[in-house]
Amino acid sequence: MFVRFLVVALLALAAASPALAQYPTRPVRVIVPYPAGGGADLLGRAMADPVGEKLGQSVVIDNRGGATGMIGAELTVKSPPDGYTAVLGSSAELALNVAVYSKMPYSPERDLAPITLIATSPIVLTVHPSMPTRNVKEFVALAKKQPGVIGYATAGAGSPHHVAGEWMKLLAKIDIIHVPYKGGGPQLIDLMGGHVHSGFLALPVVAPHVKSGRLRALAATSLKRSPAIPDVPTLDESGMPGLDVTQWWGVLVPARTPRDVVTKLHAAFADAVRAAGVRARMAELGAEPVGGSPEQFGDFIRAEIAKYRKVVQETKIAVD
Q1: Distance CA 289, CA 263 (A)
Q2: I want to staple 46 with a disulfide (CB 3.0 to 4.6 A). Which of 37, 170, 269, 281 is the partner?
């Protein structure tokens, strides 16, 4: 009798969730919460085909920019937890915004389930070649000699670039002026044109112009030097110990997505991170591949949130 009951129960379970057993049966959408052409978008498109091959379905990149990534992240949170919608999120909307904004439309820890950490990349303190500063020591000395004069451009108020600048101000005890832009494109144009003295820019954006000599890189905001710019020291080793505003990107799905779907997605994205073509593209973008388990990524996000809460409190950054 017990065996018969068990068989009936198993058959009922299989009938109740045939799509789960066959997942995926249709294309998977990966939301990139930033416009096309940015770091997250380029990483997502580099991984789309390898992930699709592993899943046996196409992967569609859906750019939904706005509100420093929160529009795309919220859209993911509100999607059905069936594995057909994921987000390629970044350090901004998954960690920093929790510390910067008093209210958010979602909780990264409660409303999203981690899949894997994809890659990391530093932000770079950069100056126009006309600036008489060739290293961080000279930059700090000039800022102390001319308080309230030197401007530093960022991709926007509350962005990782802004946090890097304010953290540097705090540790170096200097008075430099924040000049926020609506994105990295306008920021780069004005810095290259000499309309602003310095800026904190994403490595993929600034690297070609540093190599051409049109801009000068003074330091990276990561704790270790980037293989893409090995001659550029970090702010940590330039007299600002512990300063770490490393940008990162990872894949998440809505909370309550079934565990076996999470496992399939993790296997697909983990394989893509290890693929030679993807790693070569990441190197071109100045990003370092990471990978790791969903649990490791979850722990990483929680640690980043705690770090930024402390830094934002100390620097008194606020955008609302």
Answers
A1: 20
A2: 281
* Tokens describing residue 68: 């420093």
- The pairing of strands 177-180 and 85-90 is unpaired
Copy the structure tokens of residue 249: 């990107």
CA angle centred on 282, ends 127 and 196, rounded to 5°: 15
Domains (range + CATH), the chain = 25-120+247-315 (3.40.190.150), 123-238 (3.40.190.10)
Classify burial at 124, counting beta carbons within 10 Å of its beta carbon; exposed 0-12, middle 13-18, buried 19 or more. Answer: buried
Q: Is 5 exposed, middle or buried (0-12, 13-18, 19+ CB in 10 A)?
A: exposed
Q: E strand or H helix at 16, and its extent?
A: helix 2-16
Summarised one tens digit per residue, pLDDT across range 33-71 is 988 877 888 899 999 999 999 999 999 999 998 888 999
Supply the pTM of this predicted model: 0.86
Question: Is beta strand 198-202 parallel, antiparallel or unpaired with respect to 151-154?
Answer: parallel
Amino acid found at 312: V
Measured distance CA(213)–CA(277) in Å, rounded: 28
Instruction: Provide the 8-state DSSP code for 26.
Output: S
Length, in residues, of the chain? 320
End-to-end Cα, the chain, rounded Å: 64
Q: Exposed, middle or buried, 227 (CB in 10 Å: 0-12/13-18/19+)?
A: exposed
Strand, helix or coil for residue 79? coil
Question: Which phi and psi (to 5°) does residue 304 adopt?
Answer: -65, -40
Report yes or no: 55 and 264 within 8 Å, Cβ to Cβ.
Answer: yes
